[in-house]
Design a protein that fits this description.
Layout lengths: L4 H9 L4 H21 L3 H10 L8 H10 L14 H12 L6 H8 L10 H12 L8 H7 L4 H18 L6 H18 L1
Helix pairs in contact: 2-3, 2-7, 3-6, 3-7, 4-5, 5-6, 6-7, 7-9, 8-9, 9-10
Adenosine-5'-diphosphate binds next to α9.
InterPro entries: Diverse_Catalytic_Enzymes, HD/PDEase_dom, HD_domain, YqeK
Organism: Paenibacillus vini
Catalytic activity: P(1),P(4)-bis(5'-adenosyl) tetraphosphate + H2O = 2 ADP + 2 H(+)
């Protein structure tokens, strides 16, 4: 089943409170700006941003069942519950909404954790999620400033803020985020040599 963008907006916005939908709109807008700025695909950025939080407000039990019943990454069951919605979003977008583009699906799948070897689209969606206009957290202005000239530097600052927050709270850090951050730092070093 193929859906139009308007239909997808209706489907996705219907699965979350109005405040979170406003966040999604902010991520869509920001992802398109970043795609323009850094030579990414604007249409894919818009679509991945539209879909990225589709499962965010599903009850945790539903998310856990979705992971178990469909053979999705079982590691997610052992980590912060907030990580599951990204993988589920990609799965549902493909199975139920007919999204086949692997780049879009991966950008949804890795928007919270990041991954090693992030694509430009992965970076755009992940960064847009950190800096959309509705976001307010300590350090967001610095990330916005860095995003004026470097996707990678801004994203490292974003991951650093998440990692610092988790350290401060004594929480477990999903290891892929540390690997993503390290990978981006290597990438930045490589580009400066
Ligand atoms: N790498 C990670 N390891 C562990 N928990 C994480 C990680 N990334 C995000 N989280 C948890 O998920 C929460 C929300 O992350 P995020 O997807 O950015 O959600 P939101 O869009 O609601 O801010 C964080 O506050 C944190 O508790």
């Amino acid at each position: 089943m193929e859906y139009t963008r308007e239909q997808l907006i209706e489907i996705v916005s219907g699965q979350m409170p109005a405040k979170r939908w406003k966040h999604v709109e902010g991520v869509m807008e920001t992802a398109v700006i970043l795609a323009e700025r850094f030579g990414g695909d604007k249409e894919k950025a818009d679509l991945a941003a539209l879909l990225h939080d589709l499962a965010k407000f599903w009850p945790v039990e539903r998310q856990e069942a979705m992971i178990r019943d469909n053979g999705l990454n079982p590691e997610l069951l052992e980590h912060d519950k907030q990580l599951m919605h990204a993988e589920i979003g990609a799965f549902v977008a493909q199975r139920d909404y007919g999204i086949e583009d692997p780049e879009v699906l991966d950008a949804v799948r890795y928007h919270t954790s990041g991954r090693v070897g992030m694509t430009k689209l992965d970076k755009i969606v992940c960064l847009a999620d950190y800096i959309e206009p509705g976001r307010e957290f300590p350090g967001v202005e610095r990330i916005r400033d860095l995003a004026e000239h470097s996707l990678e530097e801004a994203l490292v600052a974003g991951f650093d803020s998440t990692i610092s927050f988790l350290l401060e709270k004594g929480k477990v850090i999903f290891p892929l985020t540390v690997l993503s951050r390290n990978g981006l730092i290597q990438e930045i070093k490589g580009s400066k040599q």
